[in-house]
Amino acid sequence: MATETRAAVPAADSAAPAPRAGGRLEFPYLDGLRGLAALAVVFYHAYLFTGTTGTGPTELPWLRPIIGWGYLGVPLFIVLSGYVLMLPVLTRFDRYRLPGGFWKFIWRRARRIIPPYWASLVLFALLILFVPVLGQPGGTQWDTKLPMGWGTFLTHFFLVHDFFPQYIGKINGPMWTVAVEWQIYFLMPLLILPLWRVFGGWATASSLVLIGMWMGSESRYSWMHPWFVGLFAVGMLAAELTVKARDEHLTGTVRTKLGGPRWASGAFVAAMAIGTVLVFFRNRDYWQHQTWPSEVVTGILAGILLTWMGRQAVTGRHTWLARFFAWKPFVLAGLVSYSIYLFHSPLLGLGNLLLLPLGLYPKYQFLMMVFLVIPVTIAVCIGFWWLVERNFMNRRQKHATAEVSHRGRIPEVETDDDAVTTDETARTRH
Fold this sequence. Notes:
It is a single chain. Helix 8 (175-199) packs across helix 10. The radius of gyration is 22 Å and the shape is globular. It contains 20 helices and 2 strands. By secondary structure, the chain is mainly α.
């Protein structure tokens, strides 16, 4: 799940110069947000993998009100993907055309996500085949990833396992979201952008969200999370509103009613976030067991948050929240988040299986998972990033990695005017 962000910033209270028209916008805080979401998923899965099947929820119920929301990192990833993939569409070409056309877009996406995905898939398939503790049921959550046959492997290899309920959660549970996002990459140019050109962003995103909600409520293909298509469109809409604010700021046409007191928009976003948290916690059993409503609400809230931070950033009003997400440790976690996502689940399952013979009480087992297994898992994920994933980073991520390595402060907003050379042939063809 690649992030398309970046930046380096001026003094805290000085307004940053607005990027010139046509430059691609990049926001470093998106990497930090993605890193936090990845870590939330890791801790959630550590909780589920602790002990034998069901030990976490039954023996450690006091943790669930906090750690049990970690799955909401996934819809956040989807909204972020829609946001970062829409930014170059809006800042490089007119009329919602993909830079370079359909096949270049798919090739860039494939080169970015598929080689690391295949590498992790083959590695864990081999481990399941040749490491007995992973290949045989042991009464833990890992049993849901078994057995692994040719049907399981081939559907995973071709990224279609999310179409099959019997295969979707095998080998490496989080991989189902890679398949869903890969399919959304095709829907973006073939369905979502054409609808966008005809009906506009608000109508398209709203319709896709409502269709996804209907499919979720009717349990129609719910294992595929069809509402993620709508959440991806929510991210696209947030990007459009961000770029619109940038353009209005550059031309001096920002309407007064959209400006208002500096604190007003932040107070609105904070009120919505607090209200959502209160609703979630008041009816926790419903929201955590009927995941589609909580994922939809989280995705919409994420879209609002990205719109607010983006519109503030492009007009020189850098928010404290954006600076918080742009803290270097969070950004570093975001840069390796795809490797974390691909690798963490089987490693957590293996760590739990190796700890079981010690016969620890559930709370001590969980503490061992947190303070031993998770750090080792993150270290292995970083190693995988170094050996494999970094060889397939896109231009923005290479720049982001270099930027975060220096000792200076990470900027809030940055433009990448030279990231893509305009292809006149592609313009003519589209």
